[in-house]
């Protein structure tokens, strides 16, 4: 989910007749001045040098000329292939770096992809030589020959621009996912993206993307042929790399400068890929039966610390095998459905075939 730190919303204090004589319950004039000055300082800090809002380029015909001779020239991404045949391989890609222990939530998403997508291959693109821990054993034994490994190193720069703190790892990962899809094609998932039901209906398009709440490209679920025109153009967006902006090159610039100008390059999905920010539905609501209507859902697990209620977060700071069996919010049902080996049988959630079929 995109959170735009450059937009600061505030309420102004209106002079309603504050007199020199301070009355009980009223803010002294000096206090009003202090609030105004403090607000101005905060705005300058948030929007000053290095904090400018996004600046987009005008239409560039030379950019789109780079895909002029593509095999997809003239392809209709509104209806897909004429005979509804699949052109995107049934590969699922995950990216793992540094930590050899796979968390419970990430393992849930891997197992959901295996169970609900039934992929030909699941790729771990990683620099890790050996994974460890009980969740890794569960994944290894469950996936078997479907699991493949591809060694990859996070890049340190793009088109001569170095990835710099604080977003260097995220930006390097964003570039890596584009390159992975350009090499293999398939379905790229964030490690906390949960496949609810098969994404096969989207495999007949050149490329499918989800749209976020902020009207930008959601990178959490991507479905693409390796020669998709948008992939090449998306990578070109990094020639104007903005290191200080978390989502500019990944989601904002490609949406504004490519997709809005050439919407035929992709098949855009507004809601059913679940990239628009569903934390309240997942972690605050008591029930949410409609989650089964989605094809996938981005769990936004890293964002729980500030998007969940304080009470919930203090009570369930980490969601894992130690508490998921009793976790009463909708994500608990989703997790237990694919990975609940350690829960008493009565605490697992096994929906009836009738419910599942009625929502597909």
UniProtKB/TrEMBL annotation:
Checking SUPFAM superfamilies in the record gives: Nucleotide-diphospho-sugar transferases
User: InterPro entries, from UniProt?
Assistant: GlycoTrfase_DXD_sugar-bd_CS (IPR007577), Nucleotide-diphossugar_trans (IPR029044)
Record keywords, A-Z: Membrane, Transmembrane, Transmembrane helix
Asked if the record carries the keyword Membrane, the reply is: yes
Q: Which residue windows are coiled coil?
A: none
Q: Does the keyword Transmembrane helix apply?
A: yes
**Cross-referenced Pfam families, in alphabetical order?**
Gly_transf_sug
Q: Which residues cross the membrane?
A: 30-48
Q: What is this protein called?
A: Alpha-1,4-N-acetylglucosaminyltransferase
Q: Which organism is it from?
A: Diploptera punctata
């Amino acid at each position: 989910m995109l959170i735009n730190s450059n937009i600061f919303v505030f309420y102004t204090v209106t002079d309603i007749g504050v007199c020199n004589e301070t009355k009980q319950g009223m803010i002294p004039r000096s206090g009003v001045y202090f609030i105004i000055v403090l607000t101005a300082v905060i705005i300058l800090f948030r929007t000053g040098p290095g904090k400018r809002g996004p600046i987009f380029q005008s239409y560039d015909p030379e950019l789109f000329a780079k895909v002029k001779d593509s095999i997809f020239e003239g392809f209709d991404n509104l209806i897909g292939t004429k005979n509804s045949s699949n052109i995107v391989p049934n590969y699922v890609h995950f990216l793992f770096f540094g930590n050899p222990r796979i968390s419970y939530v990430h393992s849930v998403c891997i197992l959901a992809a295996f169970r609900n997508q039934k992929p030909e291959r699941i790729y771990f693109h990683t620099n890790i030589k050996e994974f460890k821990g009980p969740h890794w054993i569960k994944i290894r034994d469950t996936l078997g020959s479907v699991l493949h490994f591809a060694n990859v190193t996070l890049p340190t720069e793009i088109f001569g621009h170095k990835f710099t703190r604080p977003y260097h790892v995220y930006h390097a990962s964003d570039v890596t996912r584009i390159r992975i899809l350009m090499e293999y094609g398939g379905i790229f998932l964030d490690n906390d993206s949960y496949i609810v039901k098969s994404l096969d209906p989207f495999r007949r398009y050149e490329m499918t993307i989800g749209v976020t709440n902020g009207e930008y490209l959601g990178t959490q679920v991507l479905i693409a042929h390796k020669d998709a025109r948008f992939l090449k153009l998306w990578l070109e967006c990094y020639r104007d790399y903005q290191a200080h902006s978390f989502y500019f090159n990944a989601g904002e610039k490609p949406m504004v400068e490519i997709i809005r100008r050439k919407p035929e390059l992709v098949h855009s999905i507004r809601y059913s890929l679940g990239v628009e920010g569903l934390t309240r539905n997942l972690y605050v609501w008591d029930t949410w039966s409609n989650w089964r209507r989605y094809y996938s859902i981005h769990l936004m697990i890293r964002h729980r610390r500030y998007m969940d209620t304080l009470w919930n977060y203090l009570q369930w700071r980490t969601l894992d095998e130690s508490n998921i069996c009793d976790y009463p919010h909708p994500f608990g049902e989703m997790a237990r459905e694919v990975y609940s080996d350690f829960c008493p049988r009565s605490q697992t959630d096994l929906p009836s075939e009738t419910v599942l079929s009625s929502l597909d």
